[in-house]
Design goal:
Radius of gyration: 17 Å
Number of domains: 1
CATH class: Alpha Beta
Oligomer: single chain
CATH superfamily: Aldolase class I
CATH architecture: Alpha-Beta Barrel
Largest sheet: 8 strands, parallel
């Protein structure tokens, strides 16, 4: 099997310090959590940013501050800004971090029932416009998938020239789709040959999905965005603690951990330029 790429989703847009006091808001806290995950074995930092009071923002300057801090602490890590932002943001708000030309960014390939009355809207035109812009800015999309139909959209828009191959998918299980081995296997069997994939389990599903994914040869996403607990009833102290747990599972199952340079090679990204 290829080496395991670990993505750390260090903050998200919805969880707060009320859920776990270690959720990062400030630039320094974002940097601290990124560094903890990186030192534990994460090659990719999936990045949402906040104002100091915890308010989610897609402001380009705030992203730049946070990305600069992450790079200062983790010079070779892959930074993957979210273009999802938070529920209710406009497309133009959400696209701001792509102006910073990151190596990767997320591309949500469908509308999602996010809970209660909250709907995370991604129209066909939104998906096509985001995909086209990422091609123009030489950004590799991580295709965010919350059900099988979103894979079909990604394939459709690839055929239309809005998403380049080879595609990289992130299956987020436990929101709109059940977090089971059966569902994950179905999703993996549905993507085009030559694609790469990551899986994330939400809440209590996080480490179960991680273990299944490692055994299947996929890549893993963990972090405060998806879950605030390290075990039942025990709040995680850091994103690094979560990554360490994934590394232990991988060691038991015989999967080596990819470095950022190896992750770039697996994902087809350009080697990092040494400055």
């Amino acid at each position: 099997m290829e080496k395991l790429i670990i993505t750390a989703a260090i903050s998200g847009a919805e969880v707060t310090k009320e859920h776990n006091p270690n959720i990062p808001y400030t630039v320094e806290e974002i940097g601290r959590e990124a560094e903890s995950a990186y030192k534990a074995g994460a090659s990719i930092i999936h990045l949402h940013v906040r104002e100091d009071d915890g308010t989610p923002t897609q402001d380009k300057e705030r992203f730049k501050e946070c990305m600069d801090e992450v790079r200062r602490r983790c010079p070779d890590v892959i930074i993957q800004p979210s273009t999802g932002g938070a529920v209710g943001m406009t497309d133009q708000e959400r696209l701001q971090p792509t102006e910073l030309h990151p190596e990767m960014a997320t591309l949500d390939c469908g509308t999602l029932n996010f809970g209660g009355d909250e709907i995370f809207v991604n129209t066909e035109n939104t998906i096509k416009n985001f995909g086209k812009l990422m091609i123009e800015r030489d950004i590799k999309p991580e295709i965010e998938v919350f059900d099988k139909g979103m894979i079909d959209y990604a394939i459709k828009f690839h055929k239309q020239g809005f998403i380049k191959a080879p595609m990289h998918f992130d299956f987020v299980l436990g929101v709109q789709m059940a977090a089971t081995a059966r569902d994950l296997a179905f999703m993996v069997d549905s993507i085009p040959q030559g694609s790469t994939w990551t899986a994330a389990g939400i809440g209590r599903n996080q480490f179960q999905i991680a273990a299944i994914t490692i055994a299947m040869g996929g890549n893993v996403r963990v972090g405060f965005e998806d879950n605030t607990y390290i075990s039942k009833g025990v709040l995680a102290k850091s994103n690094g603690e979560m990554v360490e747990k994934v590394v232990r599972i991988a060691n038991e199952l015989g999967r080596e951990i990819a470095t950022p340079a190896e992750a770039r090679e697996i994902l087809g990204l350009k080697p990092l330029e040494v400055k």
